[in-house]
## 1
Amino acid sequence: MAKNNPGKIFEQDIETSCSEQNIFYYRIKDTFIPMELRKRVKVTKNDYDSFVYKYPNLFPIEFKSTQNKSFSFDEKIIKKHQIEALEKAATYDGLIAGFIFNFREYDNKTLFVHIEDFIKYKKCAEEGICEMEYVKVNKSSIPLEVCEQIGEPIHNVKKKIRYRYYINKLISSLIDKYSGGNHD
């Protein structure tokens, strides 16, 4: 992992938080292919970054961290195959899939956004087909204000220089909200 990459540091902090709270965490390893081989070698893309498990649910998660106040829908930031894989995972009983968005420069606000809620907002933003009224609609991104509206907050504290996240609290909230097909 890149030592100075804020996104990777964020993922490490989540992993450490899970370990400290006795929550299973598995990071799916990225495959590195040297530049000279990339055009000749086909490599499968990871569907998401990790799995978190706490009985009775599995959570496929894609992490996103930014210093900005929104995440662009641009393919370089949020990839189509990630959206599709999370959407497919969410169709299985016991799986709660989504993004964890981290806004580093805005009090380290961190929120879980269920993939279905993300897709509804994206459809509203890009196509104008809205199932609900959002606090803000950007055609090409999901802003912090919308993540706060549709997501579940992940409380965190800074310990010296690294963060700890209250993952147990998040999981309890997600299980209450999404288990048993009760998602609206």
## 2
Amino acid sequence: MRKLILAGLLAAVVPGAAQADRQPPKRLLAMSPDAFQAATTLQDDPLEYHATLSTRKAHREGWGLFRLDGHDNHLRATVDKRTGATKYEVRTKVRYYGTQRAYRSAHFVTPAGLQAAPLTLQLDAQDPCATNDNNNNFNCALTKTIAFELDEAAVRAIAAQYQTDRQQTWAFKLKDENGADIRTAIVPAEAAGLLRAVDDYRASRPVQVAAPGGHHNMSLMTVTDGG
């Protein structure tokens, strides 16, 4: 209770702090594609048709009591082990103060120009104070996980922006229906590292090919860079 009261007071002292743009931490800006590839985790259950690779481990989530908001972004790839086709997502965990927000889409730029993508995930956490309705108007800390998809060509275009002598970012905006948009970013090295991990996985794993009777034969997975 004391933490909720203090958090509410802090939010009142710093109005609009939750609207501030956040750039990736300097630690992430300094990481190479090799470092992101090494930090990429793989979930590959032999009894599932899909394997999941994620760069989340490369991020150190943690917002202190005096940090009023946070955007923790990472990339995720889901590989269909039957075909090698891969789905890519940008995932963001957001913390903010106030009432529940409703995000609907993501805006970002690709070589084809400005794009808008619908959200594929919008999951509210089980926060101690889910709304403002019954808490004497204190602003509670709320967390939400949001995701949207990118095609492989877009991910490779982001990765191609990586330069060893420059700290660049790829920006995107999460659109809230009431104007509480979030502008944040990932680093090209992260996209490059995930792609390397995906390419290595797809090159080394067999494809599960359906056979008569519902059984599966195994054949070598050969997938081009375009997925």
## 3
Amino acid sequence: MTDYSASAARFARETRGHEITVEHEDGLYRHLKFITEGRGSIGSFQLITWPYNLVAKTGWTFHFDIDATPDMLDLFRNTAFSGEINPGYWSEKVRAGRDQVEGFNPDLLKAEIASTLAQWMRDDLDDRVTKQAQRFGYTVKEVGTTPGIRRELARQVRPEWMNANRQLREAVEGHFFGDMADYNIEYESEAHRALHDFSFRPKGDTSEWPYSFSDWHEWPLKDYTPGFLHSCHAIRHGIDMYDAGRKAVAA
């Protein structure tokens, strides 16, 4: 299960002390307001329902609908436990506000860069071990089946390997994250430009091609936006408050 604890904690801080006000209720036609007394509009939100529809106004506005569910509160009750959210399924029901559901996430970019850099380093070590084995006349099978041989070959090439990869790490750090970087990767277009422009060859490297991010177009760099996650928490929390109020009245 995806961890939404960070967005849940942020939502809880912003809505602490909320009370519900039923502005209107006529069957499935509801207008519910949630606000903390004395805090003005900070963290406040509204849920508006009518048959097959729900609008969440949280600072962002999302309109959900589904033909099979007359009471949209049931949709959210039945597809996530109390206190939890299901943004994957709920995003499929968004009619208006779809352009705000997902957005570029710089943290995903940083993770992909780190993963690619680590793979480059592993591949470079393998290449150096293979070339060193060839110099000493070892076969690929001998290197692969005799751990002691590989360890010794890796020890021999490690100083050059560490130097080359220190250069590579410094190049990546300076290009994407350094104080003098030409790109602001917090923005999607700038991140794409930085990925496209990166090219580096460590000193002494004689390989045919320099290091570059050739497959970055395939990286998953989008995630649910903070606004959409906040609205999902608002819906589930609002329903919980609404249900608790009805139970209290019935008792």
